[in-house]
Amino acid sequence: MSDWIICLGGSSNQVPYIKEIRKMNYKVFLLDKNKDAPGREFSDEYKSIGYDQINELEIFVKSKFFNSHKIRYVFSAASQFSQVGVSALSELLNLDFI
């Protein structure tokens, strides 16, 4: 079973980070409200949720998928607003937040 990283945001600025995460043998679950996000091509799974939709993010990570897969980290290289989502999900999943 592979460890997963939740990536909030998949803009062209985040693609290099997503590629590096994949090189580290993690699976990437991309959450981005843009269904045409460039990072989607390099992700293993995708769901259309914006990083500022905190309630929807919290509900989604409580879903069956996340109960049956090991989430290692929550990551974003997007704007400072995405860090609110990273913080909320990290706390919900009992992950260290850096």
Description:
The chain has helices at 15-23, 54-61, 64-67, 82-92; strands at 3-8, 27-31, 45-47, 70-75. It is globular, with a radius of gyration of 12 Å. Helix 1 links the parallel strand 1 and strand 2. The mean pLDDT is 88. It starts with a strand and ends in a 6-residue tail after the last helix. With 98 residues, it is α/β, with parallel strands linked by helices. A 4-stranded parallel sheet has the order 3-2-1-4, sandwiched between helices.
Lay out the secondary structure.
Blueprint: E1 3-8, H1 15-23, E2 27-31, E3 45-47, H2 54-61, H3 64-67, E4 70-75, H4 82-92
Parallel strand pairs: 1-2, 1-4, 2-3
Helix pairs in contact: 2-4
Tally of contiguous helical segments: 4
Molecular shape: globular
Mean pLDDT, to the nearest integer, reads 88
Cα-to-Cα separation, first versus last residue: 25 Å
Radius of gyration, in angstroms, nearest whole number: 12 Å
Strand order of the largest sheet: 3-2-1-4
- Which percent range fits the helix content? 25-40%
SSE pattern? EHEEHHEH
Structural class: alpha/beta
Q: Give a short account of the largest sheet.
A: 4 strands, parallel
Poorly predicted runs: none
Number of strands: 4
Work out the strand percent. Answer: 15-25%
